[in-house]
Design a protein that fits this description.
Strand content: 25-35%
CATH superfamily of the largest domain: Thiolase/Chalcone synthase
Number of domains: 2
Helix content: 25-40%
Bound molecules: coenzyme A
Radius of gyration: 19 Å
Strand order of the largest sheet: 1-7-6-4-5
CATH topology of the largest domain: Peroxisomal Thiolase, Chain A, domain 1
CATH class of the largest domain: Alpha Beta
Shape: globular
């Protein structure tokens, strides 16, 4: 019999050594520890130095996930990197492949901002379900500190850097129980990091555009409203697909964007606080890394146990949002 079910068999994470607390931010912008904690729940975030590349951070997280899964890098068939901040615009997944020595694996990047991990999980699962690949490494990693405007107090307080990874393996029973993914490009201007080009005439009549990516811009109130409305909807849909109800969830694992968003979503779904995984106080919003980082911490702390049912949901720029219901372990 072919094993076309999916099991998530290992997790790992990595964070830069440098941390920046709210007090430190008061030296950059007019803000206070109290304002940031009250509005976001964030106390500190990690910041990657110049020599801490995204690929290196991702490779460290990956090695831990691969070790937990009990496989070796040459056994990997596919490496999927969810990121919006690659070291190289052509993609960073191949650099992770080289750092790991995952010689057989095909590797590519996937961009869906803070939804990247959930979108990547579903994408990775399709290769296993169709019996194409058996061992897939999914990494969520972001170094948004590269792209934050550190003079903008409405955004710079939110973000941090990290990497998280999981190994998905072909399995007899399918542990990915249901999912739902969504996009709405008409709201792209709520949260973006756009390319700004200057028009230059290359030869008579031939114009090119060259420039740079601009720092993150965000309409905080709109993004907040979007998250609190859309995330419960998408989790409900994924639960429906899984033939489960909210009471059957062991853990609610949301993208760690804002503690108030986590609380409001849990309240709408009627999920008690003790089932909500939160580590936002220590890392801020680490974009595609936030879900696998929080997952890995909860697994290593012994909170998440084999067979626990997890409702994960990512949301962010695009706009994109999605949910996946899965059971931890084989
Ligand atoms: N420190 C102190 N004051 C600040 C501040 C800061 N860091 N940032 C904004 N303020 C001020 C504003 O200037 C405003 O003052 P004003 O009323 O005199 O103009 C006041 O605080 C309220 O600002 P507002 O933007 O309305 O705050 P808010 O309650 O919406 O909270 C966010 C701001 C960003 C915390 C909140 O909107 C949010 O979390 N949104 C979701 C963002 C998110 O999750 N993005 C990523 C998704 S992946």
């Amino acid at each position: 019999m072919q094993n076309t079910g999916i099991a998530i068999t290992g997790s790992g994470s990595a964070i830069p050594a440098t941390f920046l607390d709210n007090q430190g931010l008061t030296k950059l912008v007019e803000t206070s520890d109290e304002w940031i904690i009250t509005r976001t729940g964030i106390r500190q975030r990690r910041i990657a130095k110049k020599d801490e590349s995204l690929a290196a951070l991702a490779a460290t997280a990956s090695k831990r996930a691969i070790a937990m899964a009990g496989i070796t890098p040459p056994e990997l068939d596919l490496i999927l990197l969810a990121t919006s901040t690659p070291d190289d615009l052509f993609g960073s997944a191949c650099q992770i492949q080289a750092l790991l020595g995952a010689t057989r694996a095909v590797a590519f990047d996937l961009t869906a901002a803070c939804s990247g991990f959930v979108f990547g999980l579903v994408t990775a699962a399709q290769f296993i379900k169709t019996n194409v690949y058996k061992n897939v490494l999914l990494v969520g990693a972001d170094i948004l500190s590269r792209w934050v405007n550190w003079q903008d107090r409405r955004t710079c307080i939110l973000f941090g850097d990290a990497a998280g990874a999981v190994v998905l393996q072909a399995n007899q029973s399918d542990r990915l129980l249901g999912f739902e993914l969504k996009s709405d490009g008409s709201q792209n201007n709520c949260l973006n990091l756009p390319f700004h080009g200057q028009s230059k005439e290359l030869t008579p009549g031939v114009f090119i555009s060259q420039g740079n990516f601009q720092p993150i811009t965000m309409n905080g109130k709109e993004v907040y409203r979007f998250a609190v409305q859309k995330v419960p909807e998408v989790i409900d849909k994924a639960l429906f697909r899984a033939n489960l109800c909210a009471e059957q969830i062991d853990w609610l694992l949301l993208h760690q964007a804002n503690q108030r968003i986590l609380d409001a979503v849990a309240q709408r779904l009627n999920i008690p606080q003790q089932k909500v995984i939160s580590n936002i106080a220590y890392y801020g919003n680490t974009s595609a890394a936030s879900i696998p980082l929080a997952l890995d911490e909860a697994v290593r702390q012994g909170k998440i146990k084999s067979n626990d049912i997890i409702a994960a949901s990512g949301f962010g720029a695009g706009l994109t949002w999605g949910a996946a219901i899965f059971q931890w372990g084989r």
